[in-house]
Amino acid sequence: MKKASDRGFRRVLPWIEGLLLIAALPLPWIVEDFWTLFVTKVLILGLLAISFDLVWGYAGMMSFGQALFFGVAGYVSALIATQLEITSVLVLVPVAAVVGLVVAFLLAIIIILGKRPPSMVFVALGTLTGSYVVERLARGWSYVGGQNGISSLPRLTIGGTEIEEGIVFYYVALAILAVTYVLVRLLVRSQFGLVLAGLRQQESRIAFFGYKVQNYKGVVFSLAGFIAGLSGGLYAFHEGFVGPGQLGPVLSTQVVLYALFGGVGTLIGPIVGVGLIELLSYILSQYWETGWPIVLGVLLLVIVVFRPTGLMGFVVSDRERIGSFGRPGGTNAGDKP
Fold first, then answer.
1. Please, what is the angle between helix 213-239 and helix 89-111, to 10°?
2. Who's near 102: CB < 8 A, 6+ residues apart?
3. What SS3 class is residue 65?
4. What are phi and psi of 31, to 5 degrees?
5. Whole-model pTM?
6. Cβ(261)–Cβ(302) under 8 Å?
7. Between 66-83 and 33-52, two packed helices, what is the crossing angle to 10 degrees?
């Protein structure tokens, strides 16, 4: 016989994920070209938002450095395309992801894998500083275009065929996002994800049980860098441009807002956050060219203050967001006994 908690529990996330996927599949054949390009950009930034959700929503590390991995990956792939004339998507996109992974791992060695476990403030300030320093470096380095960045990037190719911005690029971005999403979903619902949930809720208790807390944090931080790098490589070639703004604290902060607005710790919430914030930004800018950031900022502030779980918090329960990890009638992974 099922317990009362089971009878009252309904999973909402699979329905939201399924409905969004069904809506996304025919979209380019229904809407105008402008909206295809717009949604493609949302899909690519959705990868970046997932990378932040992984480190903050699941591992409890506040990172302001996701743009660093995103931008460096974009720069490296752009240099390979322009200097070496390699444009294959099968080369550039994996290279961008690996660059994001390596940069994140190097930063993790400095701020996470030290002798003492880092505090949340230390990680936040360390990643913010790294992002700021690299942005300033890019602005003053003529080899990477200085303030102007690298523009007029060639199109990605596959088997000698160019991937034009539009329907083809849309489905490439959608496929990469869907595969990444499924893999991350499996990861956070695995035993590894259970440890991450423990780190977020009771880090000292997890350390008491003998888990190498810093090693787990270093791994998830590097994986998030991999996903951010993947996003950065795609974004550079979709926009045909990479610049210092894609490295700095402004974009890093924007990613935080995406996740907080949509709902951290749900994976789908940050993607929804990207779509709604980008859509609101576009609509508001049409009516109030100079003041729309104020309206958007106030709206975001209201959501963050009065609904810390974001928009997903209205429909997704805490139990489903945290996960039960195979305990159908049990408490959440993070609940105290």
1. 140
2. 225
3. coil
4. -95, 170
5. 0.89
6. no
7. 120
Residue 43 φ/ψ, nearest 5 degrees: -60, -40
Q: What is the pLDDT of residues 254-272, one digit of tens each?
A: 898 889 888 888 899 999 9
Q: How many C-beta atoms surround the C-beta of residue 157 within 10 A?
A: 17
Give the Cα separation of 256 and 277 in Å (integer). Answer: 12
**Closest among 227, 44, 247 to 145, alpha carbons compared:** 247
Tell me the pLDDT tens digit for each residue of 128-154. 899 999 999 999 988 888 888 998 899
- 3-state class (DSSP) for residue 157: strand
pLDDT grade for 4, boundaries at 50, 70 and 90 = very low
Contact predicate 167/30, CB 8 Å = no
As beta bridge partners, residue 158 has 161
Residues recorded for the chain = 337
User: Which of 198, 187, 68, 81 has its CA nearest to residue 134?
Assistant: 68
- Where are any strands of DSSP class E within the chain? 150-151, 157-158, 161-162, 241-242
Structure tokens at 337: 């006994």
Identify the sign of the CA torsion 208, 203, 222, 183: positive
Cα separation of 318 and 50, whole Å?
19
Q: Specify the amino acid at residue 115.
A: K
CA 251 to chain centre: 11
Q: What is the DSSP string of 247-283?
A: TSHHHHHHHHHHHHHH-TTSSHHHHHHHHHHHHHHHH
Q: Say what the alpha-carbon torsion angle 176, 37, 77, 123 is, to the nearest 10 degrees.
A: -70
Residue whose C-alpha is closest to residue 99's, from 187, 228, 248, 216: 228
The tokens for 167 are: 């329907």
CA trace torsion 240, 245, 247, 252 (10° rounding):
-120
